[in-house]
Amino acid sequence: MFCVIPCYNEQEVLPETSKRLRAKMEQLISEGKIAADSRVVFVNDGSKDATWDMIAGLHQADPLFQGINLSRNRGHQNALIAGLMTVRQICDMAISMDADLQDDINAMDEMIDKYLTGTDIVYGVRSSRAKDTFFKKFTAESFYKMMNALGANTVYNHADYRLMSKRALDGLSQFGEVNLFLRGMVPMVGYSSDVVYYERAERFAGESKYPLKKMLQFATEGITSLSTKPIRMITGLGFFIFLVSIIVLIYCLVRYAHGNTIQGWTTTVLSVWAIGGLIMISLGIIGEYIGKIYLESKGRPRFIIESYLKDEKDVVELKDHQN
């Protein structure tokens, strides 16, 4: 079993994360749930602090820890897929989680139990949001509801804490798109799945990597990567406005026939501004899709691995490795 953890500027939390993971892995090995050669793989996503140096230090001190260093910052989803695709050939299952210790490490036990009974994908799902502020709870719940309403099939209150079998990882590897939204892609793999509920903790240290602005960008990425429903909504809106214009035209003709001409410019100005705004919004949505087609057509690598720390004191340079 491999535990894959993407890291970006996590020097403040990494010592505690590695400490807790070491204890958990040792417990799982002693109980016979995972093999003795199971590993924790930290994926450094172009961090600007001492994160990679700390990962290298952990690797030198304990072979339990491995490290993948990306050539530059590629974003959380690309860092996560880099780790999963690197270990999929040498593991029977992989658990992905964030480095901030908000995900309950103890939920790994139940995830592995479900895997051992034949489940290919086990999602870690928050049991509640009682600790969140009203604003955080409202925006987060709205995010999941909006995603599903617009056609992105996601698991409610699930982020990227999940277990995937080798078969599921092989299935995920067949998705070759550059624009990644793993929360929507993994359910598309299919295979048997289940959920494990856990209480999400506060971030142990450091700052959140997903402020409101980035969450909105993430939502846009997910919707436009997985669904064409927004374009269909534009088409429906166009037909609706056309029907309204026919009704308004009939109304104006009737008024004109009765000698009651419309006075003033208010209706005209409001119509021009409203329709102009809708046209700009529609062009923006269509532009998002065209932009993604443009990026996909280039076939650029989703990540490039600079080095991979695996065996003790062994740094394998993989500057030409791409995926």
Please describe what this structure looks like.
This protein is α/β, with parallel strands linked by helices. It has a domain at 2-146 and 156-207 and 301-317: Spore Coat Polysaccharide Biosynthesis Protein SpsA, Chain A (Alpha-Beta Complex), CATH 3.90.550.10. Helices cover 49% and strands 15% of the residues. It has helices spanning 14-30, 51-61, 76-87, 107-116, 134-149, 166-172, 182-189, 212-226, 229-257, 266-298; strands at 2-7, 39-44, 65-70, 93-96, 121-126, 158-165, 193-198, 305-309, 315-317. The chain has a nine-stranded mixed sheet with strand order 7-5-6-4-1-2-3-8-9, with helices on both faces. Helix 2 links the parallel strand 2 (39-44) and strand 3 (65-70). Helix 9 (229-257) runs antiparallel to helix 10. The two termini are 22 Å apart. The model is unreliable at 312-323 (pLDDT under 50).
For the structure shown, list the relevant keywords.
323 residues; 15% strand; 9-stranded mixed sheet; single chain; disordered C terminus
Task: Note the topology.
Elements: E1 2-7, H1 14-30, E2 39-44, H2 51-61, E3 65-70, H3 76-87, E4 93-96, H4 107-116, E5 121-126, H5 134-149, E6 158-165, H6 166-172, H7 182-189, E7 193-198, H8 212-226, H9 229-257, H10 266-298, E8 305-309, E9 315-317
Parallel strand pairs: 1-2, 1-4, 2-3, 5-7
Antiparallel strand pairs: 3-8, 4-6, 5-6, 8-9
Helix pairs in contact: 9-10
